[in-house]
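Write out this protein's structure.
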Amino acid sequence: MTRTSPLPLAVRAFREPQCLTGLTPAEWQLLLRQCSKANLDARLYYLLRQRGELAAIPPQARELLEWVHVIAERHAQAVHWEVRQILAALRGTRGPLILLKGAAYTTAQLPSGLGRLYSDIDILVDEALLPDVETALMLHGWHATHHDAYDQRYYREWMHELPPMQHIHRQTAIDVHHAILPRTAPAHPDPQQLRAGAVAVPGMDGVYVLAPEDMVLHSATHLFFDGECDHGLRDLVDLDALLRHFSGRPGFWEGLATRAVQLQLTRPLFYALRYTERLLGTPLPPQAAAAREVGRPNPVLLALMDRLYQRALMPVHASCDDRWSGTARFMIYLRGNWLRMPPLLLARHLFHKAFLSPKDKAASEAETELDRP
């Protein structure tokens, strides 16, 4: 991809890992700051370990990465333990426990799970089972974190998930999805197809993850339908790892193209393949052309998206920015909201969040203060 400045070190590290041992101590300091902003420092540790090059980097950088590795290992252990708690809580409900995104990568022991840090665990359940699932989780200590009446309506009527839940003792968070896109989005991937294609995790009875093609499509959808790109490079590195891992599976690319059409996700798949290849050098075989080209936008739109994403996908760090980076992130944010809701509903939602919700929050806090002895 054409850029007005060289690729940031955090991108080069995953695109050209052979460059890492030649970096100066000052470059290592900058690389670690960029990776920290992108939530990729633990992934960098595993990249160096896989290449057998940890001993070849400056001692200060190695020490920091080893500390990050300890944190990542604790995260992975916590995810496995938390998944077992969720599984136990939902044992009485019908249907499998299907993990999404980072928890799925870690539990299924995929390369994209190495060094992955988490703020929550995402699961996918049948919409018909939402009341039973929510009740079961509440009985086992999880509670909703959004108590505002408008937020409750926002999630339950328009979104693809319940309001986020947090455990009252462990403070761990869980997002319960019944689909992968909001009800109000223009695309409507059939969640029943996703659930039907889910595959069991070996050694974890009752735990499932999405099929390889669906896992790639969900990762692409999460990145290119969302308006938040703070960890966009991490998500792109996830996609790169998934594509490299599944690429050798017989029929993967043909199945990916077919599945993208079935699930109405050809456009996010196009962007995923375009930017993983251009930014991270993801090797795409000839069979990938069919999966990519069916979702190609018109030339004018594509030129605009290239200019936006080549900035928005960079780490949010001063060394990665140019004068248009803030504008690019803001436009991606607007695009993400535009894709989630039709115009009138979006305008109403933004007005409420900007002007009414702060007043409701202030009034609630004042009432709480008056109730205190």
